[in-house]
Amino acid sequence: MNVLVLGSNGQVGSHLRNCLPQARFWTRNDLDLADTSQIEARVTALAPDVIVNCAAYTAVDTAEEDPAGAWQINAQAPSCLAAAARTTGAHLIHFSTDYVFSGESDKPYTASDPTIPINTYGRTKLGGELAIQAIAPSYWIFRTSWVFSEYSKNFVKTIIRLAQERDGLSVVSDQVGVPTDAQQLASATAELVSGNAMRNLASGTYHLTGPVSTSWYEFAAAILQRAKDQHLIASPYAQLTKISTAEYPTLAARPMSSVLRPDQEVLDEIETRFDWEAGLQRVICAMHETEKTT
Fold it and tell me: 5, 44, 123, 148 - which has most CB atoms within 10 Å?
């Protein structure tokens, strides 16, 4: 099977290199998704059986100042990939986000709940979803949340870096979501590509993450404790203080509760189970091993 992975230097893409070693991996240097004029032709020429799009414009605050750039990568590029999938008959797997929701619900969001994004990033990601739904004949859109890993920029690495630099950290405690290990996402994706999901799982939009939610503050506390245990930060480590969203203004509004309810239809097709605490331990250990060798 000819599999093309886009965004292969990102968090999920980096792990897919191990999970799908037979795939072709394209970075931004191979195909710049900001240049939509070339996407459809390049992908069609390759004629993949499966396209896995891990690429995205994820700088949430920067997107408020660069809406055109975010739209190009998050909405226009997926539209071009969907057109290529339609031409070649390829299956398209695309990752989306909890930020397509407003965050006002007191219950976990289902894949069929109304989408009401409250910032540019969420609106552009929703634009990509809608384009794929309208164009691609065979697609799986997987919404996930709070992705972390030992690769690229993410909350886990930021908290550890700041704890190494500062005596105290203030973290928002009233925003709730589900952290998701990129390695678990990659493992699940590889299973879906390699197994019977292409036949068993209907085209559609699904939530792919774990069942256990937490706050950014609680997530940060877990990160610091595990980082201390692995000697990535000194003991005693940086003091952690709870603050409210109102006390931490950002350029882009954030959903207060973006908890996604995982879709059982997807989980039935895979052996991978999502557990952010186990994933966090894995990531901290991987960072520790990297530090020992550098």
Answer: 5
How far lies 223's CA from each of 10, 63, 108, 152, 158, in Å? 21, 27, 24, 17, 10
- pLDDT tens, residue by residue, 36-46: 999 999 999 99
Which is catalytic among the residues 57, 99, 109, 121?
A: 121
121 classed as catalytic: yes
Q: Is 284 exposed, middle or buried (0-12, 13-18, 19+ CB in 10 A)?
A: buried
Distance CA 180, CA 182 (A): 6
Domains belonging to the chain, first-starting first, are: 3-217+243-292 (3.40.50.720)
Helices assigned H by DSSP within the chain:
11-19, 39-46, 60-65, 67-71, 77-88, 120-135, 155-165, 182-194, 197-200, 216-229, 264-267, 276-292
